[in-house]
Design goal:
single chain, alpha/beta, Rossmann fold, globular
C-alpha cells in the first residue's frame, strides 16, 4: 500500500509587491495553520517516509512545519524544482520517480495543479478546490510509484483547515 499526501502550501502574503511570486512568504494565518495541520496528521497516526516540496518559499516554509512535526529533515526532505508552475503531467512524472523505499510521501505544491491531480483519482466526487494548507490523501495498491492510475488509486481522505481546525 502506498499513500501520497498532496498538500497545498499554507496562506501566503501579498504584502510586498516587490517580491516575485516564487519568493512570497507565509502570512500570519499561514504560519498559524501549517503547524496545526501538521499536528492533525501526526495525531491521525500518519508516518511519512519522505517530504518532497516545491522550492517556492511558501511551499518550503509549509513543508518545514510538517518536517519538524514528523522529525523529517535532511535525508528525508527533497526540493523538487519542477513542482513550481507544473502541469498535472509533470506532477505525475515526479510521483512516478519517487523512491520505491518511500511508502508514504508528503508532496507540497500549488494550485490549480494539485486540485487537478487529486481529481484524476476522485471518481465522481470531484474536489472543487484544495484550499491553502489543504491535504488530500491518495491511497494506492500499486507496487511502484510509476504504476499509480485511476484503477488502483483513490482519494482516501481529505482535510481542509476551515473544516477541521
Amino acid at each position: 500500500m502506498r499513500h501520497l499526501y498532496l498538500i497545498r502550501h499554507a496562506k501566503s502574503s501579498w504584502d510586498n509587491p516587490l517580491l516575485r511570486d516564487f519568493e512570497r512568504t507565509l502570512n500570519s494565518r499561514g504560519v498559524e495553520t501549517a503547524p496545526k495541520m501538521a499536528q492533525l496528521l501526526w495525531k491521525e497516526g500518519i508516518k511519512p517516509d519522505l517530504i518532497v516540496t516545491s522550492p517556492a518559499r511558501r511551499a518550503m516554509d509549509t513543508a518545514r512545519f510538517f518536517g519538524v512535526q514528523f522529525g523529517l529533515i535532511d535525508d528525508h526532505f527533497i526540493l523538487e524544482k519542477n513542482i513550481y508552475e507544473a502541469s498535472p503531467t509533470t506532477i505525475l512524472r515526479i510521483i512516478s520517480q519517487l523512491p520505491e523505499s518511500a511508502k508514504t510521501v508528503l508532496l507540497f505544491g500549488h494550485n490549480p495543479t494539485f486540485t487537478e491531480v487529486a481529481n484524476l483519482f476522485a471518481g465522481h466526487d470531484l474536489i472543487e478546490n484544495i484550499p491553502t494548507c489543504g491535504v488530500v490523501c491518495l491511497k494506492s495498491t500499486a507496487q511502484q510509484w510509476n504504476e499509480l492510475h485511476e484503477g488502483n488509486t483513490v482519494i482516501e481522505k481529505k482535510w481542509f483547515p476551515k473544516l477541521v481546525l
